[in-house]
Amino acid sequence: MKNVKKGFSLVELMVVVAIIGILTAIALPMYNIAVKKAKTQSAIGAAQGFRGPLMAWHDEHNSFANLSFSPADNSIRMRTLEGAQINIGTNLPSQRGLEWTVETTGTDTLSIFVINFDFDNDICLPCSGRWCIACELDETCTVEVQITDTDFSGAVNPLIDLGRGENSCPP
After folding, report:
1. Residue range 29-54, pLDDT digits in tens
2. Residue 67 and residue 86: Cα distance in Å, rounded?
3. Which of 73, 119, 164, 167 is deepest in the core (most CB within 10 A)?
4. Residue 158 within a domain
């Protein structure tokens, strides 16, 4: 009578567990980077939705004056001559751990509108940044994005490689 073994040996099971561990160690960091890129791209996309309305506003007024930001509903509003507040574009999305702020600056020849997006460190450490539109008086507008590099000291930050420019927003 032959002794037929059924099942796997302990060594075979340990090899399978080791392979799964190695694959997990490779995949987890890549997954985390993909999640951070998605969060950053989402914020950039939301800010990008204001490009058309802001350019139209600048074409009509030659500045970003009379625009304000309402943190209560994350909306950018214009003040009419009668003092009414009218939303332009759609509201910036509300997300847990994400704060939006807006700032405007300008000179005689250049108007700048900046939308800052700031994630809590426990949500997404290197995902914060700023979306800028700079319009000159000749109506040429450029849009630039800067991602804050806080997590990759000395190393290449994969979030910067979004094809949107690096450290190009005005201070």
Report:
1. 888 888 888 888 888 888 888 888 88
2. 10
3. 119
4. no
